[in-house]
Amino acid sequence: MNTETHVSNRWSNKYAYILAATGAAVGLGNLWKFPYIMGENGGGAFVLVYLLCILFIGIPVMMAEVAIGKRGRSTPANAASMVATESGKSSHWSIIGSMGVLAGFLILSFYVVIAGWAVAYVFYAGTGEFSAAAADPATNAEAIGALFGNLVSSVPNLLIYTTIIVASVVYVLSKGVKDGLETAVTYLMPAMFVLLVGIMIYSAIVGDFAAAFAFMFNIDFSRLTIEGVLVALGHAFFTLSLASGIMMVYGAYLPKGVSIAKTSIMIAIADTLVALIAGLAIYPIVFAHGLEPSAGPGLLFQALPIAFGSMPMGDVVGTLFFVMVVFAAFTSAIALLESAAAYLVERQGLTRGKASLVAGVGIWLLSLLTIFSLSGEEWTLLPFMGDGKTIFDGLDYLTANILLPLGGLLISVFVGWFMKDELVKEEFNVSEGQFKLIMVLLRYVAPIAIIFVFINAIGLF
Ligand code: PHE
Questions:
Q1: Which of 21, 323, 334, 411 is the most buried (most CB within 10 A)?
Q2: 207 versus 175: which is more confidently predicted?
Q3: Is any ligand 1 atom within 6 A of the Cβ of residue 335?
Q4: pTM for the complete prediction?
Q5: Residues of 242-268 as b/e, b for ≥16 C-beta within 10 angstroms?
Q6: DSSP 210-230
Q7: What digits encode the pLDDT tens for the residues 19-73?
Q8: Exposed / middle / buried, residue 330 (Cβ in 10 Å: 0-12, 13-18, 19+)
């Protein structure tokens, strides 16, 4: 049994932390999920609510979570319980850590499957499938749609690509992430950003940019439902990697003297920019080719390949783009598995290698639920969730719309009301005025908003 309760790992410096946390934040949530849930929820008004959630709830909760991790210097459940005890409160607050680790694990089980799609698309682009589909402009969109349909309905294909992702995540993690990952992220994140901006400019030229811009920024509240507000709130947590143990783990590795407030704001800005640019890259193509904004999870994979197919050097650019998607997903997947692995090391006394392997095998098994959901197995249907909804939809709903907001609620209540003010102040290390502002957000704004949205959307009462 490992009795070590304090982690001794530290990021090399502030920038390493910012890059790793941004790497965890920027992922499929920005490139794949944000564009399609925005489409399903009517555009502009959804974007506005999402931005407000990031600003007034996401950023303060991120600061709270990092502060707990840094104060506790331990894995999430332990850190939360230690900080609670230090403030003279019940050690049962460990629940905010354990719930996070559970949410992260469930998220990862479908995350690896979608990341697998991106791996498949690297091969498709590399072998010229996109330009082949574009040979006949009249059937381009259908041909790309068929490519996607064939991928997700084939269990063997999904198994291969998912396994590639899970195995690589386990491999990198068992090696210890620091050197390899920190360096890789340093080059690949900026490269992804440049590529994404390039693709946005290209699709603005060839696609219907005006329609895309209007769709994303014309605010029409009649198109937004309360369910949509819950989706926006849940996604604010998802995209910033909150309430899933990760920011506590990364906070525990934080060197002294780093400003939790400043770094949280920088991470949130970078993350939000990537999501908005992804929307502006995808939607001009969607509108120019008569695709449906409400196409659902396949949107990214059905829209951009149309642009790649007909642009000069499209196969190369497409390959590069999906390599970047894989990478963005990979840095998030690593973070997600890190919190489970760190838990196994600390609580079960496993070595790092074994812990990564055990967590990886668990994720691989759990990912089968999503794989069979996608291939349309009858037993994966969840009729109570609606027509055609599957276990995959259920896992997505349970994590993003229930566990993450609930975790965020508990975290803001804990740091706002239960953790001793002096301790919070010491960790945040901001001016008196800024401290007051953040505390108002944590004490009142975040909890009240989350409870309000919950009650209305889930119809609790
Ligand atoms: N933030 C990641 C993304 O947007 C997903 C994620 C969620 C990662 C929760 C870690 C924890 O893709």
A1: 411
A2: 207
A3: yes
A4: 0.94
A5: bbbbbbbbbbbbbeeebebbebbeebb
A6: HHHHHHHH---GGG--HHHHH
A7: 889 989 999 999 999 999 999 999 999 999 999 999 999 999 999 999 999 999 8
A8: buried
Is ligand 1 within 6 A of the CB of residue 279?
no
The per-residue pLDDT for 307 is: 87
User: What is the arithmetic mean of pLDDT over 224-234?
Assistant: 94
User: With contact defined as beta carbons under 8 Å apart, do 68 and 79 qualify?
Assistant: yes
Alpha carbon dihedral 59, 236, 80, 360, in 10-degree steps, equals: -130
Q: What is the pLDDT of residue 306?
A: 92
Q: Identify the band that residue 2 occupies on the pLDDT scale cut at 50, 70 and 90.
A: very low
Q: What is the pLDDT of residue 321?
A: 87
How many domains would you assign to the chain? 1
Mutate to test the pocket of ligand 1, among 189, 235, 325, 332 (most ligand atoms within 8 A of CB): 332
Range of the domain at 269: 3-457
Nearest one of 23, 450, 419, 439 to 261, comparing CA atoms: 439
Residue with tokens 């063997």: 156
In the DSSP assignment, the letter for residue 232 is: H
CA dihedral 45→49→54→56, nearest 10 degrees, is: 140
Does the C-beta of 185 come closer than 6 Å to ligand 1? no
Closest CA to 428 of 57, 62, 54, 56: 62
pLDDT at 6 over 80: no
- CB distance 132 to 126 below 8 Å: no
**For ligand 1, is residue 399 a contact (CB within 6 Å)?**
no
CATH code of 389's domain: 1.10.4160
Does ligand 1 have an atom closer than 6 angstroms to the CB of 242? no
CA of 377 to the centre of ligand 1 (A): 27
Ligand 1 pocket member 244 (CB < 6 A): yes
Whole-number pLDDT of residue 181: 66
Would you say the CB of residue 336 lies under 6 angstroms from ligand 1?
A: yes
CB distance 400 to 234 below 8 Å: yes
pLDDT at 317: 85
Average model confidence (pLDDT) across the chain: 92
Per-residue confidence band for 174, with pLDDT thresholds at 50, 70 and 90: confident
Which DSSP letter does residue 458 get? I
C-alpha 35 – ligand 1 centre gap (Å)? 15
User: Has residue 5 got a pLDDT over 70?
Assistant: no
Please indicate whether residue 234, judged by its CB atom, sits closer than 6 Å to ligand 1: no
Q: Are 202 and 311 in contact (CB under 8 A)?
A: yes
